Sequence to fold (125 residues):
Amino acid sequence: MIKKILKDKRVILVVLTVILLLLLVDFNQRMALLTRLRRQERDLTERYAQLESTRMALETELIYAQSDEAVARWAREDAMMIQPGDIPIILMPPANPIPTQRAVEPVIIQEISNWEIWKALFFGD
Fold:
C-alpha cells in the first residue's frame, strides 16, 4: 500500500511542494532577521563611534584641566589672582554716567481718505 502511494506522482509532488514552501518561509524569515541585525549592527557601530569621539574629547579636556596652563588661566581669569610683579587694574564705573541718547525713529503717518474709512466700517478689510 505504501509503495502504491509513493508511486503516485501527485502525492510526491504535493509533499515536495510543501517541503519547498516550508524552506522558502524559513529562508524568508532568516533574511528578514539578517536585514534587521545588519541595521542594528550599523546603528550600534555609529553609536560606538560617537561615544568613542566623546571619550577622546573628554580625555583631552581632562588632560588640559590638570595642566599648569589651565590652573594659571583659572587663577588669573576666574579667581582674580595676580603674580608677583603684576599691576592689578580694577575698572570702576564712572560716578556720573553720561546718558546716551536713543535714536528716535521717525513716525510715519499714513493719510486715509474718508471714503476708505467708511468702506472699512461697512465692509471690513
In short: The two ends are 96 Å apart (CA to CA).
